[in-house]
């Protein structure tokens, strides 16, 4: 879909004050794209002149119950807009999640049941409130208007958009060319997400870069329904701890926002020095000038590890507390010196003597014995601070401190 070739509804001309220019700069920080920047500047100016805040929408389908730092890239931007005085709408896609968002997929995504959606949605907003100000956030569920559409309303909505436009989506086009099945209900997803913007009369919608097509559909549908079209702000997809794939629980390269502080700290310290700046740009609340000063200090010889520690403490403090951040740093330093944390879990196992593979699996340090033995071969397993090199090792009765990698520990009592 080529937005540049589509007509925009006329927007009143308003002078851009210094505060509006500052608000625009805050909006643009770290974003991938703002469509259309001149329109949004005029919306900001109109809001300042009339005293009427803009309505800023973010929709999330509760496909999983937990949020990670990748989700907070967009939430951080919502908080910035919230602090500028605008109304932010946290839209839980309880209806659309039962369709299943096909974005970026080459197979049909299995829809969730209403029970699964309800269960996941229960934790969504409480976790998002670690970033957003819950007192200034409007929470909505798109079943409010989607359930009421009915068959007649759905057909009328579908008449507002053409199949040719829908098939401009890269993932649909690729699947069609490759002969992969596309279910009709998937074609309805962009329309339903777009209709959310109509129902909420949104002035701007936020999303990841993979959501751009769906956000543009909302803009077009608003025109069809006689509304001023929303502006669109897309945020980059945060790479995970591996620095390659986008952050995802399924890929295991994530940092959950409800994970213990020391776990968050340790995971973030594992990112590369180069990737650290990407995390600063997308996750830190420090000003652009502050981050530039840190970059200059590193260029002039400051150890990047110190800068990374400061970032880790900022993130842990945000989602836990300053005390937790300080404790996480102490814990990390102790582990770096080969020390053992004070708060490791205790596990009691039966069956001594027990093979090291079974010990690691039953203690919850590895998902399977095959993974455990592979880690032994790689030198990643320690018992009482000594590296295990024999995959045939059996532990007799007694208590042992078992370690996998740098961050996983357990005090195992065998009987």
From TrEMBL:
GO terms for cellular component: cytosol. InterPro entries: aa-tRNA-synth_I_CS (IPR001412), aa-tRNA-synth_Ic (IPR002305), Rossmann-like_a/b/a_fold (IPR014729), S4_RNA-bd (IPR002942), S4_RNA-bd_sf (IPR036986), Tyr-tRNA-ligase (IPR002307), Tyr-tRNA-ligase_bac-type (IPR024088), Tyr-tRNA-ligase_bac_2 (IPR024108). ATP binds at residue 249. Residues 354-415 form the RNA-binding S4 domain. Keywords: Aminoacyl-tRNA synthetase, ATP-binding, Cytoplasm, Ligase, Nucleotide-binding, Protein biosynthesis, RNA-binding. It catalyses: tRNA(Tyr) + L-tyrosine + ATP = L-tyrosyl-tRNA(Tyr) + AMP + diphosphate + H(+). GO terms for molecular function: ATP binding; RNA binding; tyrosine-tRNA ligase activity. Its EC number is 6.1.1.1. Coiled coil: none annotated. A motif ('KMSKS' region) lies at residues 246-250. Its main location: cytoplasm. GO terms for biological process: tyrosyl-tRNA aminoacylation. A motif ('HIGH' region) lies at residues 62-71. Homodimer. Belongs to the class-I aminoacyl-tRNA synthetase family. TyrS type 2 subfamily. Catalyzes the attachment of tyrosine to tRNA(Tyr) in a two-step reaction: tyrosine is first activated by ATP to form Tyr-AMP and then transferred to the acceptor end of tRNA(Tyr). NCBIfam families: tyrS. HAMAP family: Tyr_tRNA_synth_type2. This is Tyrosine--tRNA ligase. The lineage of its organism: Bacteria, Pseudomonadati, Pseudomonadota, Betaproteobacteria, Burkholderiales.
